[in-house]
Structures are given as structure tokens and as C-alpha cells.
Amino acid sequence: MKKPILVIEDEINLLHILKLNLEYEGYEVSTAENGILGMQEILSNKYEAVILDIMLPKLDGFEVLKEIRSQGITTPILALSARSITADKILGLKLGANDYLSKPFEIEELVLRLKNLIATNPNTFNIKEDKTYTFLDFNIDFNQYQIMNPQKKFKKILSQKEAAVLHYFFKNEGIIINREQFINTIWGYNANVYNRTLDNIILNFRKIFEANPKSPQYFTTIRSIGFKFESFNQLHHA
Q1: How far is CA 42 from CA 45, 74, 89, 191, in A?
Q2: Alpha helix (H) ranges present in the chain?
Q3: Cβ(56)–Cβ(64) under 8 Å?
Q4: Considering 68, 99, 123, which residue would you say is the last residue of a domain?
Q5: 140 and 203 co-located in one domain
Q6: What is the largest CA-CA distance in the chain?
Q7: Does the model's pTM come out above 0.85?
Q8: In this structure, are residues 102 and 135 in contact, taking their beta carbons and an 8 Å threshold?
Q9: Residues 113 and 150 in one domain
């Protein structure tokens, strides 16, 4: 089944180019040429992701973001803007955009970012459906919220948030996940979460799984971008 995507863009030529390229990639593409029509589409239909231009007529992208997030809609959104001002990017992310791409851009980059957004969409997985994993010598039971290593007689009870973060890493192996994605997914949009909260959770995972937590091999930080988990074929879903 083709994944439905919505593109909200007032530059008609660019809108057609995006539609053609995304359809070529196998997506089912709907379009809107202004913010009001775009918001109506988001409120009325279910999409895997939305590509949203910020500088739209009738209702700009910031207002669209603010309104749909206030209504609890968590559809992943890739914001586009001809303005590359850092303050605009920060505002877009604060209002609930999952990623931000400045114009002009390469279509290939947009497609890759879109695929990452869909892959990291929290609605595409359920912890209860993926009950147990083995990683290295550890057994992870998401049903019981615990990590066990029988050989070392180790047992760690996870909080709900710790389990969600670890599961999110496992389901998005090899994908760089930025801090905003983590917080929006695990804690929710506009959640008041200190950066150190996420950092401490990841640090604890390093202490459990890494041979040298100060030089991690599996749970790595990508400087100024985010975090990435790579198992190097040590992860198995039971």
C-alpha cells in the first residue's frame, strides 16, 4: 500500500516537481496551495507525513503548525522555507516541526529526510507488539520493562520513559535521531523536558551495554545533530 503524503506549497512549479518525484518514489501525494487548505487536509485525513512550506498565503506555516499540534495531531512534518534564519528554524521546531529544510534544496535530500521522518514516526510501532529483544548478552523485555543478563546476574527495571527511549533506538537502528524527535515522540509536543533528562537516560544505557561508556560503540552522539544506535548485528527480535 502506498504511503499517503501531503505537500503544502504555494510555488506551483515546485509543488508539481515534489508531487512527481514523490509519486516516483512510491508515495500517494495530495497537495494544497495555501495554509488554510493545507490545515483542512491535515484535520480531515490521515497522512504518513506532511511537507509544509512556512511562507504560505492565507495562513503561514507557523500558524498551521501551532494549530494542528494544539489539537494533538502528531503527524511527522518536514518544514520548508526560503528563509534560512536560525531563529525561524528554532521557532519551527519549537512549534512541532520534526525537521526543517531550507530552500533551495536537492530533491534527493528531501526524499531521504522524508523517509527518516516516516521511519521514526511513533505511530509506526508499538512497544507491546515488540515484546522481547536480545542485544549482546542482554535480554530486554519491554512487556516487563526490564533488562537482564543471566550470565552476570544483572537485572535492571526500566521506567516507562527509559523503555520508550530504548525501544525507539532499536526500531530506528542506523538512523540519526535529533533531540526534538526524541522529546516530541517520548514526552509529547511542547513537553517541558530538560535536555539532561534524555542525556542521562542514554548515559545509563551506555553504562549497561557499552564496554567503555566514555567511548560508546553502539549508542553514539552525532555532534550538533543527535544520536544514533547501531547494533552491528548484535540485536535480535525474539
Answers
A1: 6, 10, 21, 22
A2: 12-24, 35-44, 61-70, 86-94, 107-119, 160-171, 179-186, 195-209
A3: yes
A4: 123
A5: yes
A6: 63
A7: no
A8: no
A9: no
- Domain boundary pick from 123, 154, 179: 123
Looking at residues 186-204, what average pLDDT do you find?
A: 77
CA-based torsion, 21, 23, 25, 27: positive or negative: positive
Q: Name the grid cell of 32.
A: 494544497
Using an 8 Å Cβ cutoff, are 177 and 220 in contact?
Answer: no
Average pLDDT, stretch 173-187? 82
Neighbours of 46 (CB within 10 A): 10
CB 27 within 8 Å of CB 5: yes
Q: pLDDT tens across 134-154, in order?
A: 999 999 998 888 999 988 889
Cell of 9: 506549497
CA distances from 25 to 13, 29, 45, 100, 120 (A): 19, 10, 21, 21, 18
Domain of 66 in residue numbering reads as 4-123
What three-state secondary structure class fits 57? coil
CA–CA dist 111, 100 (Å, integer):
13
C-alpha–C-alpha distance, residues 228 and 162, integer Å:
16
**CA–CA gap between residue 113 and residue 75 (Å, rounded):** 15
Q: 122 is written with which cell numbers? A: 511513533
Task: Report yes or no: 204 and 157 within 8 Å, Cβ to Cβ.
Answer: no
